[in-house]
Description:
Layout: E1 3-7, E2 10-12, E3 18-25, E4 34-39, E5 45-51, E6 59-60, E7 68-73, E8 78-83, E9 92-98, E10 119-123
Amino acid sequence: QVQLVESGGGLVQPGGSLRLSCVSSGFTFRDYAMTWVRQAPGKGLEWVSTIFDSWTSPKYAESVKGRFTISRDNAKNTMWLEMNGLKPEDTAVYFCAQGYRGTSGVSYSETHILRGQGTQVTVSS
């Protein structure tokens, strides 16, 4: 079965850290760029970060640059998002998605895009 499963979300205080995981199955993980997107309450999807192959630098949205780090282990079919210095505005459901379709979040909402079910991140004191 082709799927992506996220985990690691939770409630954290401002300034805190979380590490999200995305485990893939059913496709050759190493052949694809992988992306994190997020959806805040009442808003559309926002592109967060994408990781490519070993020779290409990952991309980050300006809003998370310097605070978030994306990584992957192709042997484990897994991708991570290390989030530090969390802010209330980082509160959202975080999804991992297969591939890279640019930095517009709406591109990842198309029905043919493989995306996980999401994991909730809440940053609040």
